[in-house]
Amino acid sequence: MDASMLEETIQNPNPYPIIGELQYQDVWNLCQQARELAWDADKDIDWVALKDELSILPEEVRVAGAEWWSLRAWMEHGATPYGAERYRQAVYEHLPFEIKQHVANFIMEELRHHEASFRIADALGGYQPSPRSDYFKLVIPKFHDEKEEKQMSFYAGMAVNTLFEQLSGELLAARYRNARFDGIKHACKLILRDEARHVQFGRILMKRFFDQLDVEEKKMLGNKFAGKLRGSLLNGVYAVVNLPEDERKRSSHARALAAEHGLGATYPDEEVEIIATALQQIRDDIAPYDVPIPRIPEIEGETDPPMQRAAATL
Ligand SMILES: [Fe+2]
Ligand SMILES: [Fe+2]
């Protein structure tokens, strides 16, 4: 190939040094676990049996379940472009091999969560590749905003992301308990096992890197966490509390119906309780690092001064 063409396509001016020496044994341990605990969404779940079992459910329930698992599939997919950006960043910043390996594992794992989820939606009667509600079409893209991510260092940003993994892991655990069909229960269990590793990665990063952050950076991380939670995840992703009235009613009804029939879903009120408990756990976990998370009024209630209370969106 002509050398001048290569210059046009290669944007990283200096890929070297490409680090091959392990620096973080605890991260490498996670990479090894990921290899041992790899699973296959196609082969490890009996899709034919699941489809058969689900076929006896009333049409309305299957439609609600398919919507629910489509949403789960969109969410899992949302983690993959985020992961791809982090991989690119890890290469540009010459990070050690085990960090790049973990990020690549993360992408593959989120992709298999996505696959398991859209296959469940299909078994229920049809995966929806796009949300039917216009409102929702706007919510999912806000899930990952690279401009926001770029304001944080690689390790701080990834640690914040794993706080969300902790929250979604708690919700998923409740959905695992709700699931009454073997295929759905097994998929939830396999996904949870991967998520536990993602959470563990966040804990390692916090332990290793949070002490190095200054007060302003810590404040920014807390604000980013609260902003993302309130701005997109409570808008129908983790819970429905911040959805507009009509969409909240419709969405709540569908979730409740899916939960009532043991499709691996959660009731809207239950979701708020789980998020409140998990939020308290996260506050306790990050307390030693002095990262302040602003109050989340939709979940934790109002104790702010009256002026702010009037402006809140409860
Ligand atoms: Fe996931
Ligand atoms: Fe994850």
Give the key terms.
314 residues; 14 helices; globular
Helix vs. strand class = mainly alpha
- End-to-end Cα distance, whole Å, is 61 Å
Low-confidence stretches: 305-314
Helix fraction, binned, reads over 70%
Please specify the SSE layout and strand pairing.
Layout: H1 3-9, H2 25-36, H3 47-54, H4 59-92, H5 97-123, H6 134-139, H7 146-150, H8 154-178, H9 182-209, H10 215-237, H11 245-260, H12 268-286, H13 297-300, H14 306-311
Bound molecules: fe (ii) ion (2 copies).
One fe (ii) ion binds at residues 79, 110, 165, 195, 198.
Task: Summarize this structure briefly.
It contains 14 helices and no strands. The protein has 314 residues and is mostly helical. One fe (ii) ion (FE2) binds next to helix 9.
Structure in words:
- The protein has a single domain (about 25-125, about 150-300), classed as Ribonucleotide Reductase, subunit A (Orthogonal Bundle).
- The chain has about 325 residues and is mainly alpha-helical.
- About 35% of the residues are buried.
- Mean pLDDT is about 85; it is low at about 305-314.
- The radius of gyration is 21 Å and the shape is globular.
- The protein has 14 helices and no strands.
- It has helices at about 5-10, 25-35, 45-55, 60-90, 95-125, 135-140, 145-150, 155-180, 180-210, 215-235, 245-260, 270-285, 295-300, 305-310.
- The structure holds fe (ii) ion (FE2) (2 copies).
- One fe (ii) ion binds next to helix 4, helix 5 and helix 9.
